[in-house]
Amino acid sequence: MGKTRVRVVEGSCWPCKKRRIKCDLTKPICMRCGLVGATCDYNTRLIRWSTRPAVTVPPMYRIISRDEQLAASLAVYEKRALDYFHGRFWPLLTTASEPCTAPILVALEHRVVLLATCVLADAHRWLQDGRNSRSILNVKRLECLAALRVEVDGFCAKGDGPLQTLLFAVLLLYFHDGFLECVEASASTSSHRDGVLAIVDRLGGMTAALDTGQDPLHLLLTEFLSADLGTSILKGRPPSFPPTVWESINKGPVWWGKDSFGRHSLSAVFREISSMAFYLDATSCMREEFSISRIRQFEAALQPIYAPLAVEDLDSPIIELEDTSERDLEATHAYAMIRAFQHAALIYLYRAICGLAIQHPLVQQHTQSCLDCIFGIKRPSKVINCILLPLCIAGAHAQTPKEQKKVRNMVSIIHDEIRFASIHSLSVALEGIWKVETPNVTWAEMFAELNPEAIIL
Questions:
Q1: Where is the Zn(2)-C6 fungal-type domain (predicted)?
Q2: Per residue in 328-346, pLDDT tens?
Q3: Is 218 a member of any domain?
Q4: Residues 197, 238: one domain?
Q5: Are 94 and 255 in contact (CB under 8 A)?
Q6: Does 51 map to a domain?
C-alpha cells in the first residue's frame, strides 16, 4: 500500500506549495527550504516577472539608442537587464503614471553606468522571483565596483572627466544597496552616499547638479535628497543640504506626484522638515534657544491641506462624477500623500523637537490622521509604494494592536508590490518598537535600531 499523500499545510511557503510537501512553517526559512537551499517565500501572493519581451511595448518603455551598434554590442544578459530596469524597476521610483525617460542612453554609452544598471536590475529580479544566483550577483557587483574605481582613479589623475556619468553610476549603486542589498553584510549605502556628496560638491553643489538638464538625473537626485532627509530625521542629525535646495526643485522631474492644479507641492513640506531638522540641531547644540513662536511657525506651515471645492464640480452632470479622469485621480493621490507627510512632520515636531510623550494627545492625533491618509489611498495607486517614511513614523507611534495590525498588513502589501529588501528592515524595526514597554522612549531611542544601510522613502 502506497504512502498517504501529505496535504499542503495552510500558510505554507511557496516552494513547499509548489513541491506539494508538508511545510513546518518556520520563519523566516522553513527546514525543507533550508536543506535544499530554496528561496523561502511566505508572501501572500506569488509574483513572477516575465523576462520575455512583450508583444507590444508602450513607447515610453522602449529602449531607443542613437547608435544601434551600441545596443548590438551588448551581451544577452545585459539586454535583458536593461529591459527589466526600464520596464519594471524604473517605474517604481516615481508615483507618476508616465515617468520621465530612464537613463538607458547613458547606460549604453558608458560601461560603468551599464554595469550599475545591470546590478540593480538583476538584484531586484532576484528579490522578485529568485531566478538569479546570489553568487553571480555578488560577482557582478564586484565587477561594477572595480570599474567604478577605475573611473574615479582616472578622474583623479586627469583632474577632469565625465562627472555626471560617475554620478549616475554611484546613485544607482546607492539605491541598489539602500533598497535591495541592505539586509546583506556587503551593503555599503553610507559609502555610496558619501560618494554622491563628493561628486555633487565637485559639480558645484546640488543646485548645479540639478540644473544639468538631464531628466533622469534630476529624478534620481530628488530621490536621493528625500532619502537623505528621511534618514536624517530618523537618526537625529541635520540633512546634508540646506532647506533652500527644495525651493526650486520642481523645475524638473521629481519622484512624487505633482498637484496638477498647481496649488501645492511635496517639496514645500520637505523644506519645512529640513528646517526643523536644522532647528533641532541648533537647539541641541545651544546655538539657538528653544522658542514656542518658532514651533507655531512650523505648525502653521505644516497644516494639512485638502483639495478645495471647485465650481466645475457643481456644474458638472452627476453622471460625469462617476468617470473620474486620471488627472483628477492623480491630484487626489498627490493630496493624500502630501497630507500623510505633513502629519508625519508634525509628529516629528512634537516628539523630536518638543519632547512630547508617545501618548500625548497631539502626537496620537496626528498619528491616527497620518494612518488614515495612508489607508485611504486606493490601490493600485503607485503612491502607496512611495509612502514608507510616513508609514514608518506613524506606524512606530501606533499604540493599539488593531492599528499595529493594519500597519503590518500595509507593509506586507507594499512589499508584495515592489519587493524591496528595505521594507523587511522597516518591518523588523517596527516589530522591535512595538515590543518596547517603556512609555517614555525618546524619538532618538525609538529609531536607534533601524537598519543604517536601509533607505526608508
A1: 12-42
A2: 666 777 888 999 999 999 9
A3: no
A4: no
A5: yes
A6: no
Is the pLDDT reported for residue 418 higher than 90? Answer: yes
The amino acid sitting at 406 is K
Give 310's contacts (C-beta < 8 A, 6+ positions apart).
none
Cell representation of residue 339: 497630507
Count other C-beta atoms under 10 Å from residue 129's C-beta.
Answer: 17
3-state secondary structure of 188: coil
Assess if residue 47 is contained within a domain. Answer: no
Whether residues 371 and 426 share a domain: the answer is yes
| Mean pLDDT of all residues in 420-442 | 91
Domain enclosing residue 296, as ranges: 228-446
Rounded distance, CA 93 to CA 256, Å?
A: 9
Question: Are residues 20 and 72 located together in one domain of the fold?
Answer: no
Residue 95 shares a structural domain with residue 197: yes
State the Cα–Cα distance between residues 237 and 271, nearest whole angstrom.
Answer: 16
Q: Are residues 374 and 419 in the same domain?
A: yes
Which residues lie below 8 Å from residue 72, measured CB to CB, with a gap of 6+?
Answer: none
Rounded Cα distance between 143 and 75, Å, is 15
What is the number of structural domains in the chain? 3
Q: Do the domain assignments include residue 48?
A: no
Confidence (pTM): 0.82
Beta carbons within 8 Å of 338's beta carbon, 6+ residues apart: 259, 264, 265, 266, 269, 304, 305
Question: 193: burial class by Cβ within 10 Å (0-12, 13-18, 19+)?
Answer: buried
C-beta of residue 22 within 8 angstroms of C-beta of residue 8: yes
Separation of alpha carbons 117 and 175, rounded Å: 11
Q: Give dist(CA 376, CA 327) in Å, integer.
A: 18
- Angle at alpha carbon of residue 27, lines to 448 and 180, rounded to 5°: 55
- 158 pLDDT band, cuts 50/70/90, is confident
What is the torsion angle, in degrees rounded to the nearest 10, for the CA atoms of residue 70, residue 71, residue 75 and residue 79? 140
Q: Are residues 360 and 249 in the same domain?
A: yes
User: What's the rounded Cα separation, in Å, for the pair 148 and 449?
Assistant: 31
Same domain, 198 and 269: no
What DSSP character marks residue 15?
H
